[in-house]
Specification:
Elements (H helix, E strand, L loop, with lengths): L1 H59 L4 H16 L3 H24 L1 H5 L1 H36 L3 H7 L23
Helix pairs in contact: 1-2, 1-5, 2-3
Length: 183
């Protein structure tokens, strides 16, 4: 009878551990999905501001068609990106073209003083901060999840249930160098 009670306690402890490990993996995976959706919300907010910014600049610098087209193409590439790697590449391209667009304001004093342009520029700058925070939260969530997947003995349980490592939101090599702005 004592052996049966000990065996029962071991089985109950093992089942409790498996339930806890599974719930922990699910919680971390859902946190990653939530973090990704926060990035998506902030990027959408930024992408919604860009057409208004381009239209404002167009009124002052209509002959800067190449720069304006580059911003729109970068925006469209960002909308089409689906994985963290594709999104990171598209965002880097978009940030470079937006830098060129903001640099145009230096050549057009009327544009630089336009209240609509200033408001859009300020809104985009604020959104950039939110995007950066969301990216950091996403990467922190991926780190916690990936750590959990690699910890003993959860790694065996996770492998059995086909939990897979997640990809970090990383900047590519081109984004690590400052953009060159020429007029």
């Amino acid at each position: 009878m004592v052996y049966f009670i000990i065996l029962l306690i071991v089985v109950v402890a093992l089942v409790a551990y498996l339930i806890s490990a599974y719930n922990g993996l699910i919680r971390r995976r859902n946190q990653i999905e939530n973090a990704w959706s926060q990035i998506d919300v902030q990027l959408k907010r930024r992408l919604d501001l860009i057409p208004n910014l381009v239209e404002t600049v167009k009124g002052y610098a209509a002959h800067e068609k190449e720069t304006l087209d580059a911003v729109i193409q970068a925006r469209n590439a960002s909308v089409a990106a689906s994985t963290p790697h594709e999104q990171a590449n598209a965002e880097n391209m978009l940030e470079g073209t937006l830098s060129r667009l903001f640099a145009l304001s230096e050549a057009y004093p009327d544009l630089k003083a336009n209240q609509n342009f200033l408001a859009l520029q300020e809104e985009l700058t604020a959104t950039e901060g939110r995007v950066a925070y969301s990216r950091q939260f996403y990467n922190d969530s991926v780190l916690a999840y990936n750590n959990k997947l690699q910890q003993f003995p959860t790694m065996y349980f996770a492998k059995m249930l086909k939990f897979e490592r997640r990809e970090y939101f990383e900047a590519d090599e081109a984004a690590r160098t400052a953009p060159t702005i020429e007029f």
